[in-house]
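Q: Two folds, back to back.
A: First:
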Amino acid sequence: MLKQYETVFIATPVLSDTQMKDAVAKYTDLIKANGGEVVYEEDWGLKQLAYSIQHKTSGFYYLIEFKAEPEFVATLETQYRRDERILRYLTVALDKNAAAYAEKRRNNKANAQAAPAPAVEEEAPKAEEETVTEE
């Protein structure tokens, strides 16, 4: 039975864009090769770390939501540990409430990107009309 998981990893900041895409492709391909299904991916970009890890003060954050067999998580985390590009990782199983929240968050994000907020035109304040009387 496939369970839904969410994994976030932090990659070293010295990677180029293509190297980062290669790292992400490695893990998404690993999930798919082991009978899993990638539900959602999100690149959080380069962020500052709260404390230095391996003498690095920033890192590329990436989120992957996927469905897989429970035994696969150990394989995925072993691959994270072996990859020198990965500074930290966290994989959690989503219960039904967390999965529903994640889906709602994905839909809200998709709606926000699909239909950007309409530009609000500021109206110039109307000057009070003065009545001029001729004397």
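A: Second:
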Amino acid sequence: MPHPFRLSIVAAGVALSSFAAAAAHAGACDPQWRLFASGFDKQVRTFGEFNGVLHAGGSFDQAHGLNAHSIAAWNGSQFGALGGGLVWSFGSQYCSAIAQHQGTLAAGGSFIRAGATEVRNLAVWNSTAWTGLGSETYLEFVVGAVKSMLVIEENGVETLYIGGAGLHRWTGAAWESAGVSGGIEAIIAVQEPDGLALYIARDLGATSSVDRRDPVTGDWTTLGTLDGEARDLASWDDGTGPAIYVCGDFQTVDAVAAKRIARFANGAWSALGDGLNNLAYSLAVWDDGSGERLWVGGQFSFAGNSPASRLASWDGASWRGGGPSINGPVFAIFPHTIGDQTSLWIGGNFTTIGGEASERVARITACAASPFCPGDTNGDGVVDFTDLNTVLTAYNAVAADPNYNPGADFDSDGDVDFADLNVVVSAFNNAC
């Protein structure tokens, strides 16, 4: 079930109002949403880190009303520009990948200038100025727009991989093909018993595939073919063993029905319950304080039979909605930790969350665990007539009904029935 989320609205890092509750039952903890009433003027497509600092990339030209072309750094209170940013002559530039490489920030996407420097689709920032990296001809005509990026250690050296039209590797002196074609939408590395394996999500036109590079032989193997788009990958152990997850816009992987998200483990593909009812763009593993889960952002409104407004999480057995309603697609989700505080950053093309203004970026901060209180629908620490009335108002409603309240559906079975009413009656007048 979704748990309560606190909303605080922020403009240029200044709190404008206190929190408002989203409909939910009292769960194990209370993560806090931070909204940005003045965020970005256009889409946020990606996040990354450089020297521990969060950076956002996208097609925007302004952050908090100030010029910041396609990439911006978070300073703890607001996002700011990196030099002159990343631009294109006709204003159609975007940044879709960010990574730290050998003491610099590498940014990839579609652009022809970084600051005052002529580049093609990839540039590096050394904390002072932008420069290119390698042959502009190769980057423009062989790689094309950069869709994905990964930095790993090979032979003791940080190596940069970029995905565009094929997968490519920076040798330290030049770009070279990494031996696989197609549109490389995502790249991840997974430590396995034999070494570090690479996994890619590959666009093949009408279909897509998930492929693995063997850490010993270097050979590529296709693990599965999707009947539509693959957008992102993640590696996660849900307690039953490590697995690879893929999301996108597909209905099957090989012969297995899996709606827009699927799991690969022990040589076989499987679905995550009933999947998602619309496209999924991004995956991340994050613990909001109630336990580690696989999070997904996209365009969907249901995850399984749970209402989920463009953000949801999976615990290995069931889906949970991500909280308040988001009015546009979520393109990127990214966990970021500062000290002992961990947050999930959300970027996309939305302008409100829970009915409050938040321009294309928001943050959920993980909570400290608090005791679970069965039957307490409003989180006030006692089961009373307010909670009984909440259940009775939603009684006999199913997930698709206007009166359905997920905070009253204690067993998460998609309807409010006698079992849910019995939870309140059994705990009536109990304090938690």
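Q: And?
A: The two ends are 19 Å apart (CA to CA).
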